[in-house]
Write a structure and sequence with these properties.
By secondary structure, the protein is of the alpha+beta class. The chain is built from twelve helices and four strands; from the N terminus they run ααααβαβαββαααααα. The protein folds into two domains: about 80 residues, Glutaredoxin; about 140 residues, Glutathione S-transferase Yfyf (Class Pi), Chain A, domain 2 (Up-down Bundle). Strands 2-1-3-4 form a four-stranded mixed beta sheet. Bound molecules: glutathione (GSH). The site of glutathione has 11 residues, from loops.
Length: about 300
């Protein structure tokens, strides 16, 4: 940030700079405002440094202002992800539950190498607004949507609880997804293809990745079962009598594992109940019936 400001000041005449600093302390040029606004956008959206590479333009600034909670006008969303549920499913669910239209852009693995440089951090999911800013990071996107469409509780303590529950389930999903990636973070398009991604065959890698997500699962699940019981004796939702984004995260993170291991909830009866309650909720049920049927 400071180096960017220095770079913009470097184009100015020394006299002008002297005047500015003498009279006004610091007199920013137009370009400084652009950079500052870009940083403000970056900050507002919780986006990492990678986005600073993008040049601010009118559209981006408009997007940043309009998406503020003080202005209810709805941006046009494009959700970029692969042709699977994976990390994007919770976002699709929130869009559906809130009745918000969005473009569900799905990439085939064969397209990915061609497009990956167009995305911050070179991974998906990514939420694009009005064809302008592209925001990375699953949890940042989910939190943003939950805040915008009222799937977040109101009090700071409840937000905290809703966050850690969501984070715990995402932790399990992250390790599960990692199992389907090479060590270098690239997707393993073909699961018969073992190894470290360019480092030759090594089934130890698979054993380790499998052990890792099972270990994470076993550490987190007992606590989540207790957490569920803390409100309404676990007979409703994680936050009590209202479904929040942590319930959606729970379902989306568990779905694939549950297909792989149908008895995974045998030690967690309250969560088994929640899973069934969630999938039979009328709006969710209609979503589950209408969505694309994919393997993962
Ligand atoms: N920290 C990111 C990780 C995202 C991630 O790893 N996405 C995978 C797909 S699930 C990906 O895009 N991999 C890139 C690749 O295969 O090249 C998040 O939580 O959103």
């Amino acid at each position: 940030m400071s180096s960017l400001l220095l770079a913009s000041n470097a184009n100015r005449k020394p006299e002008a700079m002297k005047e500015d600093t003498a009279d006004l302390g610091f007199c920013p040029l137009f370009v400084d405002f652009i950079i500052l606004t870009c940083v403000e956008v970056d900050f507002l959206c919780g986006v990492t440094k990678g986005l600073l590479r993008m040049t601010a333009n009118k559209d981006e600034l408009a997007v940043a202002r309009r998406s503020s909670t003080t202005n209810p006008a709805m941006p046009n969303y494009t959700l970029h992800y692969f042709n699977g549920r994976g990390r994007a499913e919770c976002m699709r669910m929130m869009f559906h539950m809130a009745g918000v239209k969005y473009m569900d852009k799905r990439y085939e693995f064969s397209d990915w190498d061609r497009c990956r440089n167009d995305f911050p951090c070179n991974y998906l999911p990514c939420l694009e607004m009005d064809g302008g800013m592209r925001m990375p990071e699953t949890m940042a996107i989910c939190r943003y949507l939950a805040r915008e469409y009222n799937f977040y509780p109101k009090s700071p303590m409840d937000m905290f609880r809703c966050d850690y529950i969501s984070d715990c389930f995402y932790e399990i999903m992250h390790d599960y997804m990692r199992y389907y990636h090479w060590k270098n973070g690239r997707f393993r398009y073909n699961m018969n293809d073992y190894g470290f991604g360019g480092e030759g065959n090594c089934s130890n890698y698979d054993n380790y990745m499998y052990w890792r997500y099972m270990n994470t699962f076993n550490r987190i699940m007992p606590f989540m079962e207790r957490c569920l019981c803390m409100r309404n004796n676990g007979s409703q939702w994680f936050m009590g009598d209202q479904m929040m984004w942590c319930d959606m995260m729970f379902y989306c993170c568990m779905e694939n594992m549950y297909r792989d291991y149908p008895n995974m909830f045998s030690n967690y009866p309250r969560m088994m109940g929640l899973y069934n309650r969630f999938s039979s909720h009328p709006k969710i049920c209609s979503y589950l019936k209408s969505r694309c049927n994919t393997m993962w």
